[in-house]
Amino acid sequence: MASGDYVRRTAITRLAVSSEQAERLEATIDEYRIGANIATDIGWRHRVSEKHELQSLAYDEIRNRTPLGSQHAILACFQAAQAIKGVDERDSQGRAYSKPEFTAPTVRYDANTMTLFDDDTVSLATTDDRVRCELVLPDDEEGYQYQYLESDEWELAESTLTARDNDYFLHLGFRKPKPDTERSPAEDRIVLGVDLGIENLAVTSTAHFEGGQELIHEHREFERIRGNLQQTGTESAHRTILQRGNREERHSRDVIHRVSNRLLAQAVAYGCTHIAFEDLTHIRDSMPSKRKFHQWMHAKLVQYVEYKAAEIGIEVEYVDPRNTSKRCCECGHTSDSNRTERAFFECEKCGTTANADYNAAKNIGLRLVRRELHDSRRTGDSQLALKSGTVKPNRGFVSYSEQEVEVESTDKHHLNRSERASASCK
Length: 426
Ligand SMILES: [Zn+2]
Description:
This protein is 44% helix and 20% strand. The protein has two domains: 3-177, no CATH class; 189-212 and 249-425, Nucleotidyltransferase, domain 5 (2-Layer Sandwich), CATH 3.30.420. The protein is built from eleven helices and 16 strands. By secondary structure, the chain is an alpha+beta fold. The radius of gyration is 25 Å and the shape is elongated. A seven-stranded antiparallel sheet has the order 2-6-7-1-5-4-3. The longest helix has 35 residues, at 235-269. It binds zinc ion (ZN). Residues 328, 330-331, 333, 347, 349-350, 352 line the site of zinc ion. Zinc ion (ZN) binds next to loops.
């Protein structure tokens, strides 16, 4: 079967590793990077981008110069070949190119180097002995990973281990044969989750942040001026209020239009079929009146997104907003104390840290994904669009090598403190 004959999906899970296991994984990641760069050098020099050809050229050299096992040496060759092929394509398109370099802290796994067990543990080949560790999976049913892990339909395929901030994440690749008949595009659904808030006007599950603070500031300024003018009470003051009011509203609409365009651009870039918002009627009911301007902004934004989305065939749906800000999108643990500061989420159970609105955006998207999965009239697959590359344009799967040639460190899922600050005040 050609690779195009499969539907491919990725499930991301953190691994629980001991310090000794971490050491081994770290060493494997380092050596794998060295191996992939050795293969790239050789392939580049000989102008070889066919994977088996590159394997025959570079395999011995990798085995001699690194402690990588045979299968990891082969995977490094294949990945280097793919990277070189990508460069050749750039070259043939007349675009700028240079020799690819593997810099990301990642290592590839396949069925020969990795075994998944029913008790949600995985065994991974390293440069030393294999390590067997636990997958840190969501503890509630909303964990999207289960639809692949617990299914006989999905088969484990090429996967990637990534190190980030002393944590290890396994991007488990799954595949299943494409059905004979071509699926209608509506059946494989990809959801962009969007959180609407105060700190950030909107945050997406793909880690796109829209601040909106400027607008709020301008509105307050307008309110202040209006208050002063109202006190003078003259006819001309009244006219000025109307004029400024109109201008202010036009400007606000304009800004929100642009925000809605950027949200749609995210949906398009990640091949989304659906955009999930919180159900706003709930927000309206519970929001104190001093937050009226936020309500107005949120309502406008949703309205603009809805009609623009309809024009390009993306559906907007609404989910129950309960607990979306208290639930950990990683493990599903829901608690008031998960949210320690307004802009910062830290799961008391699994220790996941994230920008609070970003965590909420993922929960909102997951809620729609979950709803879609329970809809018995549907046969397609639903999944959440994430920054980390689970889902790429055209609703397809982009092989990891393409991501790894670029440093794969753009996932805001685990923000460090300075990033967190910049993300929340953007
Ligand atoms: Zn958690």
